[in-house]
Structures are given as C-alpha cells and as structure tokens.
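[scheduler] slot 2 assigned
[scheduler] job type: sequence-to-structure, two independent chains
[scheduler] chain ordering preserved from manifest
[runner] begin chain α
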Amino acid sequence: MDKWLYISAVLVFCTASFSILVIYRFIFGERLQVVQRMDQVVGTPSLLPIREIELNVPLYQRAIRPALGSIAKLLTRFIPTAREAALNKKVVAAGQPGNLNAREWMVLKYLLATTLGFLLWSWGGLMSKSLPQCLLLAGVGVPLGWLSPDLFLNARIRQRKNQVEKALPDALDLLTVSVEAGLGFDCALMKVAEQSNSVLADEFVLMMQECHMGKPRREALRDMADRVDVDDLSTFCGSIILADTLGISIGNILRTQSQQIRQKRRQRTEELAMKAPIKMLFPMVLFIFPAIFVILLGPAALQIMQAFNN
C-alpha cells in the first residue's frame, strides 16, 4: 500500500511539473525565443554599470575628442572654405590619424600655436627675460605650434606613400596569380587584402566597402588613387578602369602593370644608389676630411712652428 502511494505521489508531481512547464512555454515561449534570438544577434548585454562602461573608454574618446568637436563648431565661421578643403585632402592622404577631420585638425593648430606661444612667454618671464625677449620667444612659439601639425601630416603622407610603393609590386603579383587562377577581380582584391597587413591592403578594403555600398568600381578606384596619390597606383587604377571600359582581359593588364612597376622600382633604387656618393660628400668634407688633415698635417705644422720659434 505504501508502495502504491509513493508511486502515485511521484506521478502526480511529474504530471503537475510537466503541466506547469507546458503552460509556461505556451505563455512565455515566443518571448523567450525573441530574447534568445536577440542575444545571438546583438550579444549578451553587459552587466557592468553604465558609469564603469564610460570610464573604460579612453580619455581621448571621452574628453579630448568631444572638446575638439565643440571648439570646431565655434570656429567654423572663421575657417576659410578653401583652407579647410586643402587640409581635408591632406588629412585623408595621411590616413586620417587620430580619426580627426579637417576642422578638428585646424582647431588643434590654433590650440598648439596659442599654447606654445604662451608657454614660451611664461618661461621667458620666469627666467627674468626682458619684454622684447619674451615677445621674441612668443613669436617663435606661435608659428612653431602652428606648423607642427602640418609637419606631422606631411611625414605621415610620405610614410604612407613609401609603404604603398613597396607593397604594390607584390600585391600586383598576388592579384595576377589570383585572377589567372579563376577568381574575379573583386574576390582577388579581397584575397590580397587578407594576405597582407599594409596601407595598400587597408585601401583595397575601403575601396571594396565603397563598392558594396553602391559606388561604381570606376569611381571607387579613382577615389582610392586620389587618396593615396602615388603615381604607380594611379597608373594601375587607370589601367583597370580602361580594361573595364574596353573589355580587355584584366589578367594581361595586371601582368603588364606588375612588370612595369617592378622595373620602375628597380630604376628608383638605381637612382638612389647613384645619388648616395654625392650625399656622402658633404659629411665627408665637413667631418671626415678635417680630422684626416689634423692627423696628417698636425705633426708637420708643429715642426714648422718649432723651426720658426728657434
């Protein structure tokens, strides 16, 4: 009797649990599926407080970048449109360092010029310099702070151009092999971008993203050539546009371009090698030859001076 009572209790408990589970799934099942799908797509929400999430963001993103944007809005009316366009072209060619636009770089130039001039003025006052000397220091600091961002951007542009010129022949070889193996031009570009980690690969990825967003390939290639501003890359983009327009085989164009670019790089290397002796002449004349003259002619000059003294 006790055995059957125990079995009946277990069956009642299992039936009640199953019934509750069925009712729960019937009422909240659709909502649970939606939440599970959102977790798969968006990800599990962070359990950190909002304040802690904000503090985990770098100081540059939390304070400096918004401050530059606010000042840029105030100074927009004082920045000439032509200067802003020229600076924007330079910033894009430099790879947009710091993710700053042209207006923010202009604000940075104003801030650096003012800050450096004020610091040199204050340093002159602390060192008990006279008023004209303080003015001279401030006059040196203001243009130095104003030109510093331009010097930095020019250095970044030269660095990016050199990297593109070095990576372009190898990228064209891989692109040629990929196209001749049967891949389309777009897939071959993505394969080249995946296999290398360089400025050229980043430009290829950006160009493909523009194409995926609806921009025609011709315009995307022209924009990439304008951004990088390298002669070899501009020639390559022009050849691809011409081949696409006339229906010429892209494989033959790529092979020819690769050979020409490698020949140009060899010629540039030979030109630099021929310029090296001329560049070495100036340090030799200024630093090496005087030391050699002192070693060779020093004893003779001392003997001549002693002979005249006697």
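[runner] end chain α
[runner] begin chain β
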Amino acid sequence: MSPAPTVVENPAFKHPAFNRIPPWVRAKLSPLAIEKIQAVYEWVENECIPREQIMKAQLEGKRWVTPPLIHELRDKAKQRGLFNLFLPNHFKESPGLTNLEYSCCAELMGRCYWAAQTMNCHAPETGNIELLAKYCSEEQKKKWLAPLMEGTASSAYSMTEPDVASSDATNIGISMRREGDEYVINGRKLYGNCLWNKDLTFYILMGLSDPENPDKWHRHTMIIVPCNTPGIQQVRNLTIMGYDHAPEGHGEYLYTNVRVPAANVILGEGRAFEIAQGRLGPGRIHHCMRLIGQCERAYELALVRCTDPRKRPRGKLIGEFDSNIERVAQMRLELDAARLVVLNAADTMDLLGNKAGKRAIAQSKILVPAMATKWIDECMQIYGGMGVTQHTPLPEMWTYARFVRLADGPDAAHRHQVGREEMKTAGGFRERNEAYKRRYKELAEKYGEKYVSFD
C-alpha cells in the first residue's frame, strides 16, 4: 500500500486565528483573507478585549453618547484596512472577501460584543450597507452609502411594529401615503437604534404604501428616513432583558405626518419584500458567526473556572467533577458542529447565491442562537453565583444570544420555512419506497420466497 500523500499547509495557519477553522475552509481562503483573518484576531485580542472595562467606564454618566474609545478605535481600524470587511466581493465597493472568508472574521469579532463596531462590521450597519450597495441608484449611493462606508454616518433598520405580528411582515401597517413628491408616514415602530444617540443619521423604513394591492407581497415600500425629519418621536428606550444596550440601544417610535422625499424610495414602490430578503440572509450568517465567537470565549472562561486552584468544592477542582467534564465535552462538540452549519451556509451563498442558500441560512439561524443560550447558561452555572454578575461578561453574552433568537425573525418562523421545504420532498421519498416494494416483490418471486406486504 502506498503511503498517504503529504500535505504541506500554509505556515500562516499555525497562527491561533485559524485554530477553529476546518481544513476544507482553509483550502478556500485567499491570501487576502488569510491576512485579514489574522489581523482581525490581533485587533480583537489586543485592542478590544483589554479595553472592555474602559468602554464601560466611558459610558457611565453618558449613556447615549458614543464613547471616545469607539471613535479612536474606528479611526485606527480604518487605517489598518479592517473597515467594511463584510461586504461580499461581488460588490464593487467590497474590500474583497467572500461570505465564507468573512464568516471566519465574524467569529473572531464576536469575542467582544462591540468589536465589530470598531470595524464598521456591526448590525444593523452591515445589512444596511449591503442593501444600499445592492439596490440603490448611483445618486442614492453617493448620498447615503458612501458616508456609511466611510464611518461618518450611522443607520438603523425599521421594520418591526408593536400593533401587528411582525414575524409575518405582510402585516406591517405603518402608513406611507404619496402626496406629490413626498411620502407622508404615520404609525408606530419598535426597535431601530435610539434617536438619543446623535450619531444616528437615518432609518431604512418598511411601510405600507399600497394597502389595496391584491398581491400582499407588493403592498410595501422601503424608504430612507433622515433622523432629523420633523414628526419622529422616540417614546422610550426598549431594554433587552434589563439591559439598555447603550449607546445604540433600541427604541419605540411614533411617526406623525413625517414627510420624506419620494427620491428616498429604494428600488421602487412595492418592492420592499424583494429588498428585505436580499438584506436579511447575509445578516443572519453574521449574527450566527459572532455568536459562535462569543460561545468560544464563554467556553474558555468555563475552562479557566474549571481549573482555578482556588475553587475546590469538596476538595476537588470544579473541572474534576464528571458532570463538568461531560458539560465541557458536549459544548465542544456542539460548538464545532454549529460552526460547520454556518460555514456551509456562507459557502452556499458564495457558490449558488443567497436565494439558493436560504435553507442553510434558516438552519443556522435556528440552531446557533438556541445552542448559544444553552451553553452560555451552562458556563454561568459552572461559575456559580459570580456567573450571573458583572464579574464576567457571561450575562451580557446570554442576553445577546437570547435576543438573536428573535432578531431577523423568530426561530419558529425559520423552522416553519425549513419544515415546509422538507415536506415538498416527501413525494420523491414515497416514489422511492414504492420502488423498493416493487423490487422486493420481484426478488421474492426470483428466490421463491413468500412476498409479505406491510401496507
């Protein structure tokens, strides 16, 4: 038997940035991607995580002002070529990474909640920039997209409403009435970044512009609404599991006779669903990969606690108890499995497009947030009482993971989508099983055996 061929791997892969990236993904990484993944790792580990407590300190007393630290780091990240890495390479504005390559970066960014923001790779900016790059006219890109990519403007996405079941977006009912060269908007919205932070520049809003259209998928329109437009009132900040998520946060909004130029409509009246589907797919992958990075850090914290020589209940290290050994093993297994699901979705998007990847995207969105909440909760349990306090970032991690189970659509909606798609395959399986029976009958006659029907 001839020996197996020797594979010489790129020496760069010995860097810790690539420790969790599976071999099939490494084989697809361009030299640019290898450079950026390593740079993102160094950035998060050396510039962001050590500053986490400084970030909290700068927010004290100035909850709704972007801390100077963020502006400082954003300038540095831009100079190092770490801005807008998420925008896929089929856009002319892209820095050159594929969805799969960026996914590797996104996992590393997830290790610090606000690290992505320093690189202009945070939600909702990522989805909004991709939306504007994909669907806007050149004039709109110059006015709205360019400042976002430069980091001199900030945006939010306004879709959810308090008065309807927004998981079915055909219910969205905020009124958008055309009057001459303007749209007049009236209604209520939930979420979308807080107006209290004056860095916020505009909303991308989905509204009901043609309620009488018999095709419910063409009743809605997407429009850019500048935040300083008269008639927009922020009713309050929405806390998420008790956290205000300052300095961006979320809000509840009232629109009263808000007048917006018709020139701000994206793509055309009645095309909001076409835009929304193009926007949400990549964003879901970004969320999931950041959650995996977050879980990796939670996992590391759990290992630190398990081996802390000061913590010896009943004379044993916490990590010497069988229950914790099994916890760690199962977390490792599920984390690695979840990563493969998301990387597969990103690769499918690159190879076949976002529409073809919708099932893989939905699978990621169902599996990862639930996995993250489960295992971050277990990491808090390993820490005991300290695990639910500010002694660790675990409570904030868990809150974010729990929120993402609802962000970009609740997992029940994604399960329904996957289930519907799977039900469509049943006919083929029925035919296959009928063929098995026919062949069995033929073989029973051939061998002189009794044919037994199980129908």
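[runner] end chain β
[qc] chain β: The chain has 14 helices and seven strands.
[scheduler] slot 2 released
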